[in-house]
Amino acid sequence: MVLLGIATVVASIAGCGGEVGGRRGTGDTGGAGGDTPGTGGTGIGKAGSGGASGGTSGTSGVKDAIGPAAEFSGNPSLLRRLTRDELVTTLIQLTGAAPARTDLPEDPRSGHGPLLIGGVSFVSVEVQKLYDVLGTFAKTVAPSMLMKSGCNQTGAAQQTCLTTWSATFGPRALRRPLRMNETDSLKTIFSTATGVAAADADLMQSALMALFFSPSFMYRTEIGTPISGKPTLRALSSDEVAAKLSFLATLGPPDTDLADAARTGKLNDGGERGRQFLRLAATPAGAHAQAVLILEWMGANESKFSTKGQKYVDGLTAGTEAGFRTSAEQVIGKILTSGDGATLTNLLTTDAYLNDPVVSQLTQAGKGGGVVTGDQPDQPRLGLLMHPQVLASHTKDNGSSPFGIGAFVREAILCQPIAPPPPGATNMTRNDPPPGLSLREDLEYRTSAAPLCIGCHSQFAPIGYSFLPFDPVGRWIKQDPSGKPWALAGTTALYRGDALNFNSPSELTRNLARDPQVFGCFAQIAVQWSRGRKLTQEDEPLLLHIDAIAKSTSGNVPKLLQAIVEDTSFVTAVGPR
Question: Domain boundary residue among 206, 221, 236?
Answer without folding.
Answer: 221
